[in-house]
């Protein structure tokens, strides 16, 4: 259990006694972490064109439906935040509802999920930065130095205080959303290609076979939104701040994604956008912003895609460090990983360990002559995405189980109806992602099978680990995810 030292000046906190900087983050700060992890500009420019190709002009509705599903999940999820205060977030909730063996499996799943979502993105950073340099100055740079530089930069950001990270993410998020707002303003002012249309909302354009694939992409675009609870120990008035930040993040992402995809449809016209997206998916948004704002705006979009990726990396890095901190305090991971920097109040040893792990994975893919996008990004990201979706499903199931066993004054809608509905919807989302896995990876059936089974296999490995802890370290097992660490 960490010792809070928020009342001491930062520079006078004695070594070894520092705790995380409590009371540092407000609703907006936590929302910045969550929305930045989703990387909205990268998702829109990089993935939304493919959603339009597959789902047609009804694609914006897919993002709305995903947002509604996760808002339903947030009802039970945020209700539980008022009752479970452990720093372990997802795995603590799952432990309280479904038991320690399942919770320990969930802890491993969280580690593989968040690490997969972050480390793979170093391949995306290399690709986007290399493409931006080539587009702006005509320079070709090897991808490895870019990824390694990113590791150092993100490692430093995680080493610094959490409020430093919140300020950085705030600036970067404003930049990436701002360029999309600029595009939207140009399209709205000029009335689109052939006048503004709401045909995207028509049932005939929504209820099409390709919508299943759009929903798979849409759910993936929200990955990491639930990490609000990871920052509970550093939040101001966490019982209010964390739920608010969760709803703000889900609401913003759902509405913003749907609006921007609709703007892309209007930019080319209902009858031309699918053809334009199929012809040049990677360039769809750059063509649109060049048409409606000018070439200078397209150059800015190139730069802001890189900063969008950096923001996502930093947000996931901070989330991973706090999961590792909680597990170290629990005694599941080495205790040294739970050390907190006496000045910055960051879990700096967990951050260093995560940076080293990222470097090893990046170097392994480089040594294997792998492509930074097709292999490093997609092959590492995909198990992480599936892992986080499974965590959401387990957390949804844990809510009614928990409230069935404890005395409370919460309503049945929050503790039973919404969680069970969310579990059904999340199960559908997982099925959609798995059955359309080839769209995410572009890999062979054998590789896709391996990528799909990684997350469930890691979860199953947690069960014998729980058995071993119960026999060999009963004190660790007994207090796992049961003691508040605030």
TrEMBL record:
<feature type="transmembrane region" description="Helical">
    <location>
        <begin position="380"/>
        <end position="403"/>
    </location>
</feature>
<feature type="region of interest" description="Disordered">
    <location>
        <begin position="1"/>
        <end position="20"/>
    </location>
</feature>
<dbReference type="GO" id="GO:0016020">
    <property type="term" value="C:membrane"/>
</dbReference>
<keyword id="KW-1133">Transmembrane helix</keyword>
<feature type="transmembrane region" description="Helical">
    <location>
        <begin position="168"/>
        <end position="189"/>
    </location>
</feature>
<dbReference type="Pfam" id="PF00324">
    <property type="entry name" value="AA_permease"/>
</dbReference>
<feature type="transmembrane region" description="Helical">
    <location>
        <begin position="61"/>
        <end position="81"/>
    </location>
</feature>
<keyword id="KW-0472">Membrane</keyword>
<feature type="transmembrane region" description="Helical">
    <location>
        <begin position="245"/>
        <end position="265"/>
    </location>
</feature>
<feature type="transmembrane region" description="Helical">
    <location>
        <begin position="348"/>
        <end position="368"/>
    </location>
</feature>
<feature type="transmembrane region" description="Helical">
    <location>
        <begin position="415"/>
        <end position="437"/>
    </location>
</feature>
<feature type="transmembrane region" description="Helical">
    <location>
        <begin position="449"/>
        <end position="469"/>
    </location>
</feature>
<feature type="transmembrane region" description="Helical">
    <location>
        <begin position="142"/>
        <end position="159"/>
    </location>
</feature>
<keyword id="KW-0812">Transmembrane</keyword>
<feature type="domain" description="Amino acid permease/ SLC12A">
    <location>
        <begin position="35"/>
        <end position="474"/>
    </location>
</feature>
<dbReference type="GO" id="GO:0055085">
    <property type="term" value="P:transmembrane transport"/>
</dbReference>
<feature type="transmembrane region" description="Helical">
    <location>
        <begin position="102"/>
        <end position="122"/>
    </location>
</feature>
<feature type="transmembrane region" description="Helical">
    <location>
        <begin position="30"/>
        <end position="55"/>
    </location>
</feature>
<protein>
    <submittedName>
        <fullName>Amino acid permease</fullName>
    </submittedName>
</protein>
<dbReference type="InterPro" id="IPR050367">
    <property type="entry name" value="APC_superfamily"/>
</dbReference>
<feature type="transmembrane region" description="Helical">
    <location>
        <begin position="201"/>
        <end position="225"/>
    </location>
</feature>
<feature type="transmembrane region" description="Helical">
    <location>
        <begin position="285"/>
        <end position="316"/>
    </location>
</feature>
<dbReference type="InterPro" id="IPR004841">
    <property type="entry name" value="AA-permease/SLC12A_dom"/>
</dbReference>
């Amino acid at each position: 259990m960490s010792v809070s030292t928020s009342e001491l000046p930062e520079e006078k906190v004695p070594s070894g006694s520092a705790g995380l900087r409590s009371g540092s983050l407000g609703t907006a700060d936590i929302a910045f972490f969550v929305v930045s992890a989703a990387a909205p500009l990268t998702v829109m420019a990089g993935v939304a064109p493919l959603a339009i190709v597959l789902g047609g002009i009804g694609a914006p509705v897919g993002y709305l439906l995903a947002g509604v599903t996760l808002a339903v999940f947030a009802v039970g999820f945020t209700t539980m935040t008022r009752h479970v205060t452990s720093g372990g977030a997802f795995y603590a909730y799952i432990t309280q509802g479904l038991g320690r063996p399942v919770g320990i499996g969930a802890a491993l799943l969280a580690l593989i999920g968040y690490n997969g979502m972050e480390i793979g993105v170093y391949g995306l950073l290399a690709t986007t930065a290399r493409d931006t340099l080539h587009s702006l100055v005509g320079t070709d740079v090897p991808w490895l130095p870019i990824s390694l530089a990113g590791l150092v930069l993100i490692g430093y950001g995680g080493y610094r205080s959490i409020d430093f990270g919140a300020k950085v993410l705030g600036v970067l998020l404003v930049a990436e959303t701002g360029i999309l707002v600029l595009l939207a303003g140009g399209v709205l002012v000029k009335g689109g290609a052939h006048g503004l249309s709401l045909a995207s909302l028509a049932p005939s354009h929504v209820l099409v076979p390709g919508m299943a694939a759009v929903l798979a992409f849409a759910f993936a675009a929200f990955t990491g939104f639930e990490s609000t609870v990871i920052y509970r120990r550093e939040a101001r008035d966490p019982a209010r701040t964390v739920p608010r930040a969760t709803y703000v993040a889900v609401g913003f992402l759902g509405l913003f994604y749907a609006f921007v995809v609709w703007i892309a449809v209007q930019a080319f016209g209902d009858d031309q956008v699918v053809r334009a997206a199929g012809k040049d998916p990677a360039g769809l948004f750059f063509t649109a912003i060049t048409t409606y704002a000018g070439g200078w705006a397209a150059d800015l979009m190139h730069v802001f895609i890189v900063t969008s990726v950096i923001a996502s990396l930093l947000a996931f890095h901070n989330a991973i460090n706090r999961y590792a901190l909680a597990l170290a305090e629990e005694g599941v991971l080495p205790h040294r990983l739970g050390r907190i920097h006496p000045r910055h109040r960051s879990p700096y040893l967990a951050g260093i360990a995560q940076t080293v792990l990222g470097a090893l994975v990046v170097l392994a893919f480089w040594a294997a002559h792998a492509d930074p996008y097709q292999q490093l990004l997609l092959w590492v990201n995909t198990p992480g995405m599936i892992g986080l979706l499974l965590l959401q499903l387990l957390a949804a199931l844990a809510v009614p189980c928990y409230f069935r066993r404890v005395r409370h004054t919460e309503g049945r809608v929050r503790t039973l109806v919404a969680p069970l509905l969310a579990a059904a919807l999340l199960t559908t989302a997982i099925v959609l992602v798995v059955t359309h896995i080839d769209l995410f990876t572009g890999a062979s059936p054998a590789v896709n099978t391996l990528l799909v089974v990684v997350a469930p296999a890691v979860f199953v490995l947690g069960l014998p680990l729980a058995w071993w802890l119960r026999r060999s370290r009963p004190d660790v097992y007994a207090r796992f995810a049961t003691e508040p660490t605030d």
